[in-house]
Amino acid sequence: MSRTSSLFLPVLLLSLLAPALARADSELPDIAPGLWETEEVQVVDGVEKPATTHQACYRPEEVKKLLQQVEELAKAFGRDSCKLDLKVDGDVATTRVDCHPSEQISVKGSGKTRFTRKSFTGTMKIKMKIDMPEMKKRQVIESTSRGRWVGKCPR
């Protein structure tokens, strides 16, 4: 997994689960337990990558465990080098992240996700800049994701 991808995944998770993080006492997001299918399409510097699809079974206890992991990521993002802003307005969560782990590296991004009990759709845009003698790179990653509840978990 590339460094960019390793930064992208936590930001995407935070965007998708922002409503849970914004609620008091770590309430679970109001999503239906069961089998979910998610799809993500990334466009990196204008080049669309093949869509990735994943199915996973989510039970309330698994969602709670995932939520705890995401909360730990959110705390890590709260350090001086990264600022994370999560806002929820009704069924829409917006996320902004601005990270500067060093003078040579910066990652900025924003995303928006709309939830229902059995689906979600979201977008995220991340701009990364690396300015070191051995590597100079600018990269823009845009992602569209969606998920839907498929049914009960197979036994």
Detail the topology: elements first, then pairings.
Layout (H helix, E strand, L loop, with lengths): L2 H14 L1 H5 L11 E11 L2 E2 L3 E7 L1 H18 L4 E8 L2 E11 L2 E12 L2 E14 L2 E17 L4
Antiparallel strand pairs: 1-2, 1-3, 1-8, 4-5, 5-6, 6-7, 7-8
Summary?
The chain contains three helices and eight strands, in the order H-H-E-E-E-H-E-E-E-E-E.
List keywords for this structure.
155 residues; single chain; eight-stranded antiparallel sheet; 3 helices; 53% strand; globular; 8 strands; disordered N terminus; alpha+beta
Distance between the termini: 32 Å
Q: Decide which structural class fits the backbone.
A: alpha+beta
Count of spatially separate domains: 1
Q: Which outline best applies?
A: globular
Proportion of helical residues: 10-25%
Describe this structure in words.
The protein is of the alpha+beta class and 155 residues long. The chain has one domain (3-25, 39-151). It is 24% helix and 53% strand. It has three helices and eight strands. The protein has helices at residues 3-16, 18-22, 60-77, and strands spanning 34-44, 47-48, 52-58, 82-89, 92-102, 105-116, 119-132, 135-151. Strands 1, 2, 3, 4, 5, 6, 7 and 8 form an eight-stranded antiparallel β-sheet that branches. The chain is globular and about 55 Å long. Mean pLDDT is 75; it is low at 1-12 and 18-28.
